[in-house]
Amino acid sequence: MPAEENEQIGQAPLAPTPRAETGTRRDRRDAAALALKGVPHEPGASKPDPIVVVDDMLRQFGGLTAVDVEHVEVQRGAITALIGPNGAGKTTFFNLLTCFDQPDSGTWTFNGHSLTGVAAHRVARLGMVRTFQLTKALSKLTVIENMRLGATGQRGENVFRALFRSVWRTQEGEITDRADDLLARFKLDTKREDFAGSLSGGQRKLLEMARALMVGPEMVMLDEPMAGVNPALTQSLLGHVKDLREDGMTVLFVEHDMDMVRDISDWVIVMAQGKVIAEGPPDSVMGDQRVIDAYLGSHHDAALTEEDEEQVLAEAEEALERERAENEEAKH
Amino acid sequence: MDWTRILINALEASVGLQAVVFALAAIGLNVHFGYTGLLNFGQSGFLAVAAYGLAVTVATFGLPFWLGIVIGLVGAVLLALLLGIPTLRLRADYLAIVTIASSEIIRLVVRSVTFEGTFGGSDGRQNFAAGFYSLNPYPKGNYNIGEFGFPERVMWILTVGWALVGLSCLIVLLLMRSPWGRVLKAIREDEDAVRSLGKNVYSYKMQSLIIGGVLGSLGGFVYALGQASIQPDIFGTDTTFFAYTVLILGGAARVGAPVVGAMIFWVILSLTDNVLNQAIDAGYISSSIINNTQVGQFRFMLVGLLLMILMIFRPQGIFGDRREIALDAR
Ligand SMILES: Nc1ncnc2c1ncn2[C@@H]1O[C@H](COP(=O)(O)OP(=O)(O)OP(=O)(O)O)[C@@H](O)[C@H]1O
Ligand SMILES: [Mg+2]
Fold first, then answer.
1. Does the beta-carbon distance from A212 to B197 stay under 8 Å?
2. In this structure, are strands B142-145 and B148-151 parallel, antiparallel, or unpaired?
3. Which ligand 1 atom is nearest residue A256's CA?
4. Cα B196 to chain center, whole Å?
5. Whose CA is nearest to atom 9 of ligand 1?
6. Do A156 and B178 touch (CB under 8 A)?
7. pLDDT tens digits along A274-327
8. What was the ipTM of the complex prediction?
9. What is the number of domains present in chain A?
């Protein structure tokens, strides 16, 4: 990694999480790789130091099973990617883990705390902070106010103390300093006083991520942080995600771009139709037949016979004809 | 036509009892709707609870004035809790439905024949304001500058009323500049985002509902004391919607907006009322087109028209920030 990027980290500590005593980004990556080395490449594999453990989690919407996870563990201090085709249940799984949605059954723990029945805001206070697939910038707050909001334990957030500025002014100053550091890191410092609603889609993604870091989380869960972000910005976002691991945080993120997943993740969990179907380091997972099947549909290689093809064509033509006739009728 | 009289009436309306009452009601709504995004369609319920709390305590039970005030305030807090506990965890529309229904329930209960002994039925309650006017520091007489002015009783209630308006604005200003206010505004924008940052959204919404309700209830006290008499039908849904009109005229989420909105609202009503009535009396407008009894309704149509024009050309209200409205279109 270029020395320049490491310097940047040194200047601006991310969050109050104790900074890694050990040196560079590469060390962390190697440490994560080493820890995950002996873990078998199979769904539900147990990790040496899991921060999240999920058991028998089930969530159904009417007849549709969105999430049905038997067992899954997320390694502390590593970047884990959660991939899978559209509708695989990744976002639902995120919602369940962070208590934004309740499962029909199942148990899961974060840092050994059971999260069953815990309110969503408490999960964040325990140190598990998430972002949303559809970015939630607080439009009519300025960028800096968005950032300040993220800080926890604010004295001025109590209604009685709020009335007396002297009680919270110093703390507000500290929070603002921290926010400004983060904004600089995320290249949003020029937008400081703008309404968050006036930011572009990519900038909102950056803001949401930076705001989540203001909470000072132990684990960050990012739902498609790179979606809609231009390639140049993607590179810097990737850098930021790696920095999180550098700062001792655990990252779980959803992403569709395989190159990106390969680039930054230490471990990949693959979901399809609500189930975890494969796990492993990026390279091994992407060669997995189950994963390819899940993405392309299991019959992708069974070519159509000529007869089938003709039948399909005939049906399509018939349907078109019918539609045309209906349209004619409608006109008269 | 007597233009001096028309202008003086308008001036008196701008600082009069109604302006004070609706400024207070709208300041409360501003906390609910303007800052937190809570759709409270039952603000008149808070005014009613305060007014009846005071009137019933003093007139029905013969207890002291101050106790009446305390009971009215406690009533407003309880009403907020009652409305908030079942609805604030649900989607925003549930609060709207529950509040509009509950304010009507309150009105129908206090006007019912069954409870006539306590609440006075449709005649309401009188004879409860003596304790308040015994504190009046203004000696008997008229306090006029030229023709503009009020007698000592009105001076007293207006002094207290505007002091309450000032105090309420100060409280709202301090709160909304604080981190507490920031959480409220963030909830208005997106409550899930706020939750994901570790804030107890439910608790903040409840606090907002209570504070806005109590501020609105001050309007109920001022009205009751100013008129020295209350009737249930004052606290109908019109009152709530006038308060919303006042708020939107001024510009939601601006501290002073409800005050200026209320003044403008009552000035317009006074002007249209006086001008039309005098024009009809003087024969400038034929009474076959509109007569004096229709003027009362017609002026509200004019306010409605004005509001429409305002929303087209200045959707942010008089004080609002155009940039904020532009964000909604994105
Ligand atoms: N609130 C809901 N009501 C009904 N069905 C839902 C709901 N939320 C999700 N689903 C269904 O659950 C399944 C999983 O959805 P989810 O959003 O978790 O997918 P995803 O893996 O995040 O997909 P994508 O990659 O497109 O974001 C989908 O079939 C979806 O239709
Ligand atoms: Mg999703």
1. yes
2. antiparallel
3. 25
4. 35
5. A92
6. yes
7. 888 888 888 888 877 777 777 766 554 445 556 666 776 777 788 778 877 777
8. 0.88
9. 2
